[in-house]
Design brief:
By secondary structure, the protein is mostly helical. The protein has 3 helices and no strands. It starts with 5 loop residues before the first helix and ends with a helix.
Length: 91
């Protein structure tokens, strides 16, 4: 992912770091025999954080496509069709 939007990149990294921390908590809970409810709640939080990071990445790419529809200024070669597939993969 190109750092075209530093604010979006910061938000994405924060979400991914949060997910990593939550996943560490899930692993520790499973290793320590944690309660099923607590493990599943933390796992849902990890999943949500990853989904939000993915949607933010796609939204940033969509903004880049709108700002430069012919792709002459973009650093990647992603098409709108590929963005649609990526979006649907997360949905």
């Amino acid at each position: 992912m190109a750092p075209a939007d530093p604010t979006a990149q910061r938000r994405i990294l924060n979400r991914l770091r949060r997910a990593r921390g939550q996943l560490d908590a899930v692993i520790a809970a499973v290793e320590g025999g944690g309660k099923c409810r607590d493990v599943v709640t933390q796992l849902a939080a990890v999943s949500s954080a990853l989904d939000r990071a993915g949607f933010t990445i796609i939204a940033t790419a969509m903004k880049d496509c709108l700002a430069d529809p012919d792709g002459s200024e973009r650093t990647d070669d992603i098409t709108t069709e590929e963005l649609e597939k990526l979006f649907l993969a997360l949905a």
